[in-house]
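3.2 Worked example (two chains)
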Amino acid sequence: MQAGAAGYLSKGAAPQEVVNAIRCVASGQRYIASDIAQQMALSQIEPEKTESPFASLSERELQIMLMITKGQKVNEISEQLNLSPKTVNSYRYRMFSKLNIHGDVELTHQAIRHGLCNAESLASQ
């Protein structure tokens, strides 16, 4: 619907529902099949558990996470971002807590698993 569709039916829609949907759209209204509408409503109430755990990280935490996955050390990161090493470590430990992990290797593994970085590109560095 966000892409501009005026109506949405499932494949198994009854012929009468298809006719109703066509009439509705032809009159300038939008049409969503009741089963689809229910799924959409439920997804707003109970979002799927498949959301990336990285969604909970701040922009700075994501930035530092990507630098860690590229093999950069805390001192290198702190110099590049004009932060103290202690601040970088604070971000690291906050990430570890949010993601329920215990180190940089686990962080990198999770980032690869969720498509935030590519194992092949990391291997070539």
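3.2.1 Second chain
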Amino acid sequence: MSIDLAAVLHDVVDRGLPDGPAPVDVPRVRAQARRRRAVHLGARGAVGVGAAGAVALGAVHLAGARDARTVLPSDPDAAPGECGSSVAGLEGTPDPTLGLARSWWSAPGAGTTANGPAAVPGPGDLGTYVGREVWVQAVSSRPQDGAGEPATELSSLQDTLALVEQGYTDRLAARAAGKDVSQDELDERAETVAALQASIDTRVADGEVPPATPAVARVRVLVTHGERVVATAVLPEEGTSDAVAVWNRATSGLLSEQVRLGLVTCTVDGVGGDPLPAGTYEVFVARGGGPLTSASGPWTLTIPPHASAASGLPGDFPVDAVPMPPGTVLAVAGDATAGWRVELDVAGDDRLFVAADLLTALDGATEEGRDPLGVTVDVPGWFVEIHPGDEGDETSLFYEVRPR
């Protein structure tokens, strides 16, 4: 029996249903697989998955009330780049081979292409975010990291195979640990692995030679305020598999990877973990693996004031079954029988995915699809579609809520 590779891959990653032939979109599938794996590592044990057999997906929770009285970390004795340290001595010699950019994992309008970045991004605006964490994209052009040779279809297939094999191994381990993992799911993943391997074998037999696998580049991202490091992130994250830790190779020859950056205070003397207060922060990126002597940047990142809960919804609207991020209701129509259409004004480039994560965190919720154009989620009793506004720089979300 022949396998529609694209449909099967999208089904494995998104848990959707194959509905016919589609062009192979390996870079997109690989990016989604990386996101599922990375979020799972960060949310292990914190957030349940609604449907048995679904790929584990954690919620990017709202940060809650941001307290302007929060004491930001400060440690004059900390080494450069550590929590509370000063970045005053790191800004003079930026690294031109390393940069940061918005990621569509958090900012759907970032415009990341399947072919990857064309140039190392220079300092600029990373956006405005209301979630408790944000994803940004690190980009490297350094040959020592493996940059230089462009990605090929064969290298993309090989990278994707490594990720899908890792997912298969994870599900086997989950079943061995007593989790509800069906044999059908395992068979499906094994079939996908076989299909990918067959495609790779065909290309190798035809004489194709892929570029060498990139090295696992280690970087540190620093969020600063008043020249003090107040939040940090590192790559690779603890617990990351080798398949996930290897950076993506773009057709330009550049390498890129997604960095999960918590918008909470780092820890000094056991104190930390508080949501960063509203304001504008400067962000730097530096190579890890030794004492920091320089950093690229700064980029800017804005956290808006905390908005009040959405108000103005009808009394019979299922606010507990369909939670919404704080914002202003601009329009609402419908009823409990036919369903509702709601337009909500929400600050933040991450508003679509924050809204989605609030739904997927519910017990019994199943995410049917997620991309920059919209999200569909089944929650108990309701089917919810969310789409971002597309008029200029609108900050609206459109909800379609239908009874099931």
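3.3 Remarks
The first strand starts at residue 98 and ends at 102.
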